[in-house]
Known about the structure:
GO terms for molecular function: phospholipase activity. By secondary structure, this protein is an alpha+beta fold. The chain folds into three domains: 1-28; 41-98, Ribbon (Complement Module, domain 1); 116-227, Penicillin Amidohydrolase, domain 1, CATH 1.10.439. It contains nine helices and six strands; from the N terminus they run H-E-E-E-E-H-H-H-H-H-H-H-H-E-E. The protein has helices at residues 9-35, 101-115, 117-126, 128-134, 136-160, 165-190, 199-206, 211-218, 222-227, and strands spanning 43-51, 55-62, 75-82, 88-95, 231-239, 242-251. The strands form two sheets. A four-stranded antiparallel sheet has the order 2-1-3-4, with helices on one face. It has a two-stranded antiparallel ribbon with strand order 5-6. A hairpin with a 2-residue loop joins strand 5 and strand 6 (242-251). Helix 4 (128-134) crosses helix 5 (136-160). The chain is globular. The chain starts with 8 loop residues before the first helix and ends with a strand.
Amino acid sequence: MLKVVGASWLQTRISTYILVAVALLGIGTIILGEFGLVEKDGTYSATVSWNHKGGYRIDFWGQGNDLTNVRLNAARAYYKTGIFESGWSIIEIETSSKYPDTVQAYAAGLLEGSLTWQIIHHHWYNTVNVVCEKWAYECQKLMRFLHENTIIVRERAEHLASTDPFWHMVRLFYVQLDGLEAGWKFAVRRSRQTVEMNKEHFLWLAMAADLPDLERTLNSSESYRDYIKGMIFLKSLSREGLDPLVAIGHTTAAP
């Protein structure tokens, strides 16, 4: 037994008990740490909750979660990047029908924007930014058109959404886009980065496939038209004893 010089036997016993307790606590921490070690599987989870008073709240749960146990709330998402393995990243978003459509749409945008903020910025930088550096005048003209058009469409959607299913979906598109922008900006601040994107840039990325047609209407720049080209190839492949297989190949150059 440990004997402390100048201390009573009672004090000595107490000191011994404390040392034993600390040792056991350390051993327990090591054991629990080994069993509780979370494997970094590359799949990130996040959820969005909402209520009338507090509004939206996004929570990030990191990696290694049992996806079936991640609480749904207003929406939940699972995101895994495989850029260096397969060239693709995957995001799965689920919303709860217990919440209004607008809440579901905004929550889905929050999750997409916050979890994929780096990919969104890289995509913008490598496409929109590259084109607009070369054709600054055309981009400014197109941006003004999109800004003015968006104001009109949003007002019409707000007015008709309650009575017309089409305009209801149009409204949800813009609501989700607002959520995506808010989620992106939140993630940038959370990551302490200084990158920036304008509001119109998110709309630009969302409607990239339609921009060449808009450009042809607004401009007569042959060089810009030549830059934006794409091709889709369809072919029916016969298979013995089976239905034909339709093969689809495409090349694109998004602005």
